[in-house]
Amino acid sequence: xxxxLSHGGGGEEMNSLINETIFKIFDNEILSQSNDSAILNLxxxxxxSTDSFVVTPIFFNGGDIGKIAACGTINDLAMxxxxxxxxxxxxxxxxxxxxxxxxxxxxxxxxxxxxxxVKVVCGDTKVVPRGKCDxxxxxxxxxxxxxxxxxxxxxxxxxxKVLLSGDIGRHGGVILASREExxxxxxxKSDCKSLxxxxxxxxxxxxxxxxxxxxxxGGLSAVLNEWSKFGNLDILVFEEKIKVSDEVxxxxxxxxxxxxxxxxxxxxVLAVSEEDAPLALKILKEFDQNASEIGEIxxxxxxxVIIENAYxxxxxxxxxxxxxxxxxx
Length: 329
Description:
Elements: H1 12-25, E1 38-41, E2 45-53, E3 59-60, E4 63-64, H2 65-78, E5 82-94, H3 99-115, E6 119-128, E7 136-146, E8 161-164, H4 170-178, H5 196-204, E9 211-214, H6 219-231, E10 235-238, H7 246-255, E11 268-272, H8 277-287, E12 292-297, E13 305-308, E14 314-316
Parallel strand pairs: 5-6, 10-13
Antiparallel strand pairs: 1-2, 2-7, 3-4, 5-7, 8-11, 8-12, 9-11, 10-12, 13-14
């Protein structure tokens, strides 16, 4: 068996590679929790996360690879209830990249960090020959202070409400539209942004999220199916509550993509108690009017995600399979 592009797409093949190969080799009780960031007990509780970014094109409507690199790690920390404090930044640069492009990318990364009070404190730079890298790859690792405990997969439980912080598929749609081979022009803008402020506002107002996930590779479908499988839970979501822009809908219809599987870089899913749901939704809407309560976790335990349309017809929302849109983050 060989590595295929589908092994990096956020769907079943990627989950199989992680769970059946990588996790087995590095097996330990922290890694097996499968959270976006590792929860560590040092002198005090903190979170640690790392991610690599290989998006193409490196500049797109709404951001660039530097902005994604900062937001990606800050958001992964936020999704376990941690406020990012320090980041590392490692660069693999292809010979021939314009210095002005590098400055623009690093400025984008630095601006996100400055706005969130995060310092880039270490890193590494390598330059490889032409053709050995696609202009620039970036790795960022981050350490964050836990501000809300037990925001983890294992905290999911029946009767919890499932909320979505905005409309879906924008980032994947932008990357798809901007690639030269499709020759599309669109005003669609990526949702790429830091989620630090909205998470801090939730916690400040007494909301105790059970679990949060940013819907990146594999999109909403990947998140819900990961939750369902990990907790052996059934999740019911309502199609009419999930916002999809007209532009994303058009792109999906044109190229045969499922909007629930398209990547996002500034939209997250959260599960909260029934009591917390109204206030949580109110806060989310202050940041994005497209936020909505999209469903709930059921009492049944069949590890299924069920989606109901406006006519009350139901189907299973399957996890992403095969080669999804590659190189999106």
